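To: structure subgroup
Subject: Chain for Friday's discussion

All,

I'm putting the inputs and outputs inline so they're searchable in the archive.
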Amino acid sequence: MKDLFDRSEILGVLHGFNPWWSGRQNPVPDFRRLALEACRIYLEDASLRRAVLLSGPRRVGKTTILLQIANHLISKGHDPKSVFYVSLDHPLIKLLNVREIINLYHDSIHARGKEAFLLLDEVQYSREWETEIKLLVDHQPHYRILATGSAGVVHRERLAESGTGRWITVPIPTLSFFEFVQIRGEAGPEIPASLRPTDLFSMTQGDRTELTLRLQGLLPLFQHYLLVGGFPETAVQRNTALCQRLLREDVVERVLKRDMTALFGVRNVNEVERLFIYLCLHSGGIVAHRTCADTLGTSPTTVANHLSLLEQANLIYRLPPAEMRGKKVLRSRNKYYLVDAALRNAVLLRGEEIFTNPEEMGVIVETTVLRHLYAYYYRDVPTISYWRDPATQKEVDIIVQSPRYTFPFEVKYQENPRLREASGLVAYCKLEKVTRAYWVTKQDRDFDVLRFEGLETEFLKVPAHVLCYLLGQAERLLWSS
């Protein structure tokens, strides 16, 4: 391997990645993702003997966070040469493994045994990276390691085998609606920064009405957010067609046509691409492997394998059926959603005409609510599922459960949705004795707490743009202590 390149060529690349070594500036965007604070806290906690893995879809700002962390560390007085950023996706860098790269760094830049911050971008492209970082965590306590990976913790089985107790994962989804408003430089409403969605239950109706008025101006922005999604690069664009082309080329095609072969060894990329299009057309629906396989002309086993890869590649969410007391569930009856509704819009070339299509909007808003729930509750490591009664076909879209709570969410993004006692949401709450449930709607006037006789459950009717904004804003509270 040494005959393929000169040592100085690799060093030139490393110096290019780390301009602060020679006193040059490292310009980065001012906008800060909420995940930045999580990474900073974990990285600076000397008692935490773990590497931090920042994992999420392509083009959501992972590299920017690494560079912002580099600037932060240097501003706090750390030796600039102790801060080492490298993109393991670079053609020359991919010729070396993590150990060889670090040895070159120490031989030429920073002495061994001294404090060092390793910022490893696109770590999945390095050979045997799990084992190499395991050894660093176990035997080199002076290293603090922050890595990024586009392919959901990459190969989870291998990571579990080599990295138990050595990794802490920080997910970075697409922009929340709150972040979307911020990155566009729009004026946010004046509401309490400490307000959590659960606080809405105990508000007076007057307070809820006042909150509605303060958030009313966000509704046009929410519609644009539903159309172009939460990828930072496209969030600031005004041209919808350009946004969708960038999403198809930079996110979807790169994952399907590059990552699937390079990382997962997929030989028939066309099969994966066809399955992804099938999921775009059936997002939010139950995917029966046999039905899907018959439609695509492949086998149920292939469908199952490719669904797993798409999930690992951070393109889709999987919702299993909820486990009910004393009843078994069919685990193969999973629902699948795209990680951002804008990917669906981009692939299917959906434009502003979606706003007049209630069925399309229902899928898009349900996907968007799910994204916010994953991000807001992830520290509790909840189970997120759906419920459907096989006898009556009544269902609940999303259920978030932990040992401390159960919150069901039903999304009805319609003009005049009515919550009836015979609905699936009420039926589920009766069965599971749930105390609080969410009925997510479209109109500002749908903002109230309902109760049914003989049932202790409080049902919060809340407009989708209000719920998503508050969930996004409240994510900051996770890192305030």
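Points worth raising on Friday:
Residues 152-163 have pLDDT under 50 and may be disordered.
The chain has 18 helices and 13 strands.

D.
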